[in-house]
């Protein structure tokens, strides 16, 4: 007895229909995608800021991204941790009174969960630099 192609593969179609029509399956798919987005949002950047000459850890260095209002400060050991990072590329800024502002360009990978910048060295301003943000040349 010959059976038609439709009769043979009817079971396969029923299984697929059942999987995709079940509310539990749809909920599982939605949760799976949302967990992926949460993981991306939890990407962090960490590092430690030190004085370029003495190597001492610097506390209260303001760490931020250019054109972003969010910032953090280093702790007593010079460590910092930031979440809510910009997408793709950004410039990390390190600022502390008496020190030159440092700018570090960074490219982010979408699969990256943690970026450790290691030791970041910043240098003190000269006396002239501390009096003005710019110097006039005549």
Cα(first) to Cα(last) distance is 104 Å
| Radius of gyration (Å) | 27 Å
CATH architecture of the largest domain: Sandwich
Coarse shape: elongated
- Kindly name the structural category: alpha+beta
Percentage of helical residues? 25-40%
Order of helices and strands: HHEEEEEEEH
Average pLDDT confidence is: 76
Unreliable stretches: 33-41
The tally of strands reads 7
> So, the CATH homologous superfamily of the largest domain?
Carboxypeptidase-like, regulatory domain
How does the major sheet shape up? Answer: 4 strands, antiparallel
Strand content: 25-35%
Give the strand order of the largest sheet, numbering strands 1, 2, ... along the chain. 3-2-5-6
CATH fold node name of the largest domain: Immunoglobulin-like
What is the CATH first-level class name of the largest domain? Mainly Beta
**Number of helical regions:** 3
- Total domains: 2
Q: How is this fold's topology laid out?
A:
Elements: H1 5-21, H2 23-41, E1 44-51, E2 62-65, E3 71-73, E4 79-82, E5 89-95, E6 102-107, E7 114-122, H3 127-131
Short précis:
By secondary structure, the chain is of the alpha+beta class.
């Amino acid at each position: 007895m010959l059976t038609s192609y439709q009769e043979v593969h009817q079971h396969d179609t029923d299984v697929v229909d059942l999987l995709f029509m079940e509310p539990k399956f749809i909920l599982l798919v939605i949760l799976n995608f949302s967990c992926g987005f949460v993981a991306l949002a939890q990407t962090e950047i960490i590092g430690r800021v030190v004085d370029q000459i003495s190597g001492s850890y610097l506390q209260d260095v303001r760490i931020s991204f250019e054109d972003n209002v969010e910032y953090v400060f280093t702790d007593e050991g010079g460590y910092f941790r930031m979440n809510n990072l910009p997408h793709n590329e950004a410039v990390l800024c390190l600022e502390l009174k008496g020190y030159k502002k440092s700018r570090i360009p960074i490219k982010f990978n979408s699969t990256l969960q943690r970026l450790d910048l290691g030791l970041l060295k910043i240098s003190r301003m000269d006396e002239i630099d501390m009096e003005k943000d710019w110097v006039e040349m005549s």
